[in-house]
Amino acid sequence: MLNEPTPHESHVVEVKPAQLISKPELGTEFVVDPIVVDGQVLRDVVIDVKRHAGQAAPKKPIPNPDLGLEFVVDEAVIDAFPVPGSRLVEGRYYGMSLWGRTAKITVELPGGEIVDYFLKAEALGDIGRTMIEGEYESLKAIHGVDPAFAPFPYAWGKYRDAQPDTYFLLAEFREVGQQPPDPKRFTARLAAMHKKSESPTGKFGFHVVTCHAKLPQITDCWEDSWEVLYRKQLAYMIELDEEKHGLWPEFQHVCRLTLEKLIPRLLRPLQSDGRSIKPCLLHGNLWDENTATDMVTRKPFIYDGSSFYGHNEYEIGNWRAPRHRLSNRKYVRNYKRVFHPSEPKKEWNDRNLLYSLRYDLATAILIPGCNQRQVVKDNMTLLCKKFCIDDLLGFKRIKSISLRNRGYDEDEEEEEEEAEEEEEGEETPDDATTLIGSDDGFGLGSKLKSIALPPHYRIGKARAYHIERT
């Protein structure tokens, strides 16, 4: 029993001012919203914030998923079994998902053969539907390119009577082994998928919305330009971050520069002056715990996809974070040996840093209290110093003028400038100039326009807009 995607109506997202905040502080732990089904709290998950803020990957190996207590299988899942007449033997919790529940479902086929299926259930209402549908379509696309590289997705659907609305994914069961897999075998398989895949339209994008964890991504559109699609995706993630954490003027400044200066500077050359890049099928969120070695075949595979067709190098952006085991240089080095960097090759590292921003910003949104917002600001600043230094440094000059107008005396202003210089590790030239700022979210001489977005992009009061220079 397969659900087909349904068209979504468009709504205009209202632009509202966000709260002004200062530099973020590092927390200690974050309790994920408890999983509640039909009034019963099934579990709480506490995330180690320092783990996601870490500057080094954990040294201990990732333990294999545990087979847990009984899992009650909904009638809608039984109806979706791929072989008619199959009988449910048992359901057991298997492993862990931060935002839902995962289980191993054992079934007896009509001929007496015993088979296992993997089940994921998201009790998150509409966003759960978007997550499940996106993962189903992602796995279907990856499996279509390389059947051994991803579990086959059999069906997705909705529980019959659960409250809140609960959506499920039923897929081929793979026994998870070593995570992440062997660097050479894994990266060779990943690069092969990137090379072999073909966008159905020849463009960048996807046919449905997919989610980074529980954050919808702007994927359900088709663009000739990779620069255009990535700018849309990063701008939307910046919007979600602003809604979650409030305004931080210095951060909003480098965000604006990233969208207006860095993305055109680093991504436009990929598709200009005779150069081109192929839209490759991406997993979309590869990190340590959605890659594994199959315990039966001993081959690497991936799961929990959030796919779209994009620049293959985007896939590697998540490996830059030192908190991931995939940040081990062996993974990047082996991947680049199989899939050589795009031209201009000398800017591969700059593009990799640019691509890491969206992953780290998503982590900042999903795990309050981690330091990833600061990491993103620092990395944006690093790129701005290299490619648009005048625009970057001018913000401090304008801020100094603003402070004087607000009645700060010279001593107060000097103390604040010294604190900022100490934070950034360098002095600011006296003659720096740039545009004047505002409180619009990205600041600095811009005006906002609401744009129509389908309802699956709406998270709380999250806003989306594009920027027009005044």
Brief sketch in words of this structure:
This is protein-ribulosamine 3-kinase. The protein has 470 residues and is α+β, with helices and mostly antiparallel strands. The chain contains 11 helices and 20 strands.
Got a strand count?
20
Helix content: 25-40%
Supply the CATH architecture.
Alpha-Beta Complex
Q: Given the helix and strand composition, which structural class is it?
A: alpha+beta
Continuous helix count: 11
The name of the CATH superfamily reads Aminoglycoside phosphotransferase (APH), C-terminal lobe
The radius of gyration over CA amounts to 23 Å
Nearest-integer average pLDDT: 81
Describe this structure in words.
- The chain is α+β, with helices and mostly antiparallel strands and 470 residues long.
- It has a single domain (11-387, 435-469), classed as Alpha-Beta Complex (Aminoglycoside 3'-phosphotransferase, Chain: A, domain 2).
- Helices cover 34% and strands 20% of the residues.
- It contains eleven helices and 20 strands.
- The chain has a six-stranded antiparallel β-sheet.
- A hairpin with an 8-residue loop joins strand 8 and strand 9 (167-172).
- It catalyses: N(6)-D-ribulosyl-L-lysyl-[protein] + ATP = N(6)-(3-O-phospho-D-ribulosyl)-L-lysyl-[protein] + ADP + H(+).
Which descriptors would you attach to this protein?
470 residues; protein-ribulosamine 3-kinase; 11 helices; globular; kinase activity; alpha+beta; Fructo-/Ketosamine-3-kinase; Aminoglycoside 3'-phosphotransferase, Chain: A, domain 2; two-stranded antiparallel ribbon; disordered C terminus; 6-stranded antiparallel sheet
